[in-house]
Design goal:
Layout: H1 2-11, H2 13-38, H3 45-58, H4 66-83, H5 93-105, H6 108-127, H7 136-215, H8 220-245, H9 267-276, E1 280-286, H10 294-314, E2 319-326, E3 330-337, H11 355-365, E4 369-374, E5 380-387
Parallel strand pairs: 1-2
Antiparallel strand pairs: 2-3, 3-5, 4-5
């Protein structure tokens, strides 16, 4: 039933606003009549009823002018005390409502000043009731305590509202920060994809073109064969660029047939592309191959692709060894190129680009580990361990 009345009150605010002073007037008049019947030497009834009506009528402006309304109700309550009425909660009801309105809407300093003024007025009015001078608890302490209680309750409601507003603002800021963080993460992911695609395919195309130019005089047939395979690298680059840039399209754009994300199934094609660029790649697999999730499959392929691209660009040797080791919990990827340590160009220029950083970010994003560094015997090694899906126990098809 209370929920029903709360719903009706929320849907009819004007009716509630008009009914509140009327109900309070009935309560205050009842309190005036009851107090008049209990006080020895009854005070005049009509001035008490008139003061109660003025105080309740002033409550109609308690929302936009809370301080003037408090002043009016306080003067009416003091006048009732001067007439000889005992200041019970029923008699000073309009003052309590006005004090509550001030405590809810005004600042803490204003609330403190107003409650001190109202309490002082209650003390003065209580002392003027000659019939109860022997009982200061009824005449002074009781109305003052009710005024203080009304102010405390109003302050509590104000603090709760401020807290709710602060929580809503904090939640809105958190949502904005989360959205901004997701946008940044998506931009970084797309940037890594573009870097891997462009760096790998353009590096292979550049290496193929350079090898063909070098062999054009000594071995024209092999040079022609390399040039004939060059469009395959550029076509693969265009396909992957189309798939990556397709992520940036709006939902209203027509859906084109985009190529699926690459994975370890495309590793033979990657090895062939590196071979066309003059890099001999040896692939060894240890353990039982397991099916990988799409994210883990793409991560493994991109790490191998970037590592072989770095070998093509920076290493002096024309050979690289790729090792895939499957265990129960991890897939370990290792790419090694053996360059004599005394070779003048054996060192990888690992600090000049984003290749190693991108590989490390990819491995860390899926919960794996990454390591890259020079070997004691010369050359460079890239190794990472990626966690496998524990539910994928069947061998890969």
């Amino acid at each position: 039933m209370s929920t029903h009345w709360q719903r009706r009150a929320a849907t009819r605010p004007k009716a509630v606003e008009a009914a509140t002073p009327v109900l309070l007037l009935l309560l205050t008049v009842s309190g005036v009549l009851l107090t008049r019947a209990l006080v020895p030497g009854p005070p005049p009834v009509w001035p008490g009823v008139a003061l109660a009506a003025v105080a309740c009528a002033a409550l109609l402006r308690r929302h936009d002018r809370p301080l003037p309304v408090l002043a009016v109700t306080l003067l009416c309550a003091m006048a009732l005390g001067a007439l000889g009425y005992l200041l019970t909660p029923g008699v000073i009801g309009p003052l309590l409502v006005a004090q509550y309105a001030v405590s809810v809407r005004a600042s803490r300093r204003t609330t403190g000043i107003s409650v001190l003024a109202a309490a002082a007025g209650m003390v003065v009015a209580g002392l003027s009731v000659t019939s109860f001078r022997d009982s200061l608890v009824l005449a002074v302490v009781n109305p003052t305590a009710w005024v203080l209680l009304s102010a405390v309750f109003g302050s509590y409601v104000r603090v709760r509202r401020e807290y709710a507003v602060a929580r809503a603002e904090h939640a809105a800021r958190e949502r904005e920060e989360e959205a901004r963080h997701r946008v940044i993460q998506e931009r970084m992911r797309i940037a890594r994809e573009l870097h891997d695609v462009v760096a790998h395919h353009l590096t292979l195309a550049d290496a193929q073109a350079g090898t063909a130019a070098h062999l054009s005089r000594t071995d024209p047939d092999q040079a022609f064969e390399i040039v004939a395979r060059l469009p395959e690298s550029t076509a693969a680059a265009l396909r992957e660029l189309k798939a990556t840039v397709g992520l940036l399209r709006q939902d209203t754009d027509p859906a084109d047939e985009l190529a699926p994300a690459p994975g370890l199934a495309q590793l033979p094609a990657l090895v062939d592309a590196c071979s066309a660029a003059g890099l001999t790649v040896t692939v060894t697999t240890e353990g039982r191959p397991r099916p990988l999730t799409p994210v883990l499959d793409l991560t493994a392929y991109r790490i191998l692709q970037e590592a072989l691209t770095n070998v093509t660009k920076h290493a002096a040797t024309r050979t690289a060894q790729v090792r895939l080791a499957y265990t129960r919990r991890h897939l370990t990827l290792t790419v090694t190129n053996d360059t004599p340590p005394e070779h003048p160009t054996a060192a990888h220029r690992s600090g000049g680009g984003f290749g190693l950083l991108g590989m490390r970010e990819r491995a860390t994003a899926v919960g794996g580990t990454f390591h890259a560094g020079h070997l004691p015997r010369g050359g460079f090694e890239v190794a990472c361990a990626l966690p496998l899906d524990r539910h994928a126990e069947s061998p890969a098809p």
